[in-house]
Amino acid sequence: MTDASPMAGTNKLIRLLIVDDQELILTGLAELVFFMPDVEIAAQELSGKAVLALGKATLDSIDVALIDARMPQMSGTELISRLHADYPGIKCILLTAFDEDDNLIASMKAGAVGYLLKDVSTSELNAAIHTAAAGGKVIGASATAHVMRLITQSNNDGNSDDNNNGENTRTSALTPRDQQIASFVALGMTNSEIASKLFLSTGTVKNHVSRIFSALNVRNRTELTALLNGTLD
Questions:
Q1: 10 Å Cβ neighbour count for 114?
Q2: What is the pLDDT of residue 150?
Q3: Fewest beta carbons within 10 Å, which of 49, 116, 187, 209?
Q4: Dist CA 10 CA 110 (whole Å)
Q5: At what angle do helices 141-159 and 221-228 cross, to 10 degrees?
Q6: Residue 4, pLDDT score
Q7: What is the 3-state secondary structure (H, E, C) of the chain?
């Protein structure tokens, strides 16, 4: 799913960078993008090192980057972190295969604005590029599903404790809506952004967030993200 894009349908060209160490996939993505309105390929590279060697003038001109999650020498997450630090104007979207979605939260923490499967449809890819260029977040269905699985895993881990006497609130089950909202919180979305996406009031989202914190025994968004990323004790 993607936020509505105010840039779609305008005449402003979105300059796109594509990075993937597999030439076949790189070429395939370029062919998909070639026919998209308002999008032009600024560069397509096989590695993170090649991207950083493009030079400041080229990188400063790029609006959106599609970046492979797993590449030799420099991972997609590391490249996103480098670009986010030195070229914050580039909106990075992580591309990954189904079995590589453990990179989700790490990439968002590194500065990515979104996450998509490599077998994404042409229409969803087009919408994602325009949404990212307009400053929105790109959240593929697989990303939301993965964070929900992490939440379920967290609850199951809590249920396996020897002292399972009901006092550990982390074992409390989250409702499907709680899980959905928790996934958006972990992806860095604000209450207002979540409310807009789910057609809820900001107050309703705030109440869900409070319940999620209580159920998972975390105090804030940072702890929730760390819990889902497996870095919170």
A1: 26
A2: 59
A3: 49
A4: 30
A5: 90
A6: 41
A7: CECCCCCCCCCCCEEEEEECCCHHHHHHHHHHHHCCCCEEEEEEECCHHHHHCCCHHHHHCCCEEEEECCCCCCCHHHHHHHHHHHCCCCEEEEEECHHHHHHHHHHHHHCCCEEEECCCCHHHHHHHHHHHHCCCCEECHHHHHHHHHHHHHHHHHHHCCCCCCCCCHHHCCCCHHHHHHHHHHHCCCCHHHHHHHHCCCHHHHHHHHHHHHHHHCCCCHHHHHHHHCCCCC
Tell how far CA 178 is from the center of its chain: 19
State which amino acid sits at residue 165: N
85: its two tokens: 């630090």
Residues of the chain with pLDDT under 50: 1-10, 161-171, 231
Contacts of 152 (CB under 8 A, 6+ apart): 179
- Return the structure tokens found at 99: 């079995």
Structure tokens at 17: 């960078």
Sign, CA torsion 76/107/170/153 = negative
Tokens at residue 57, please? 């003038």
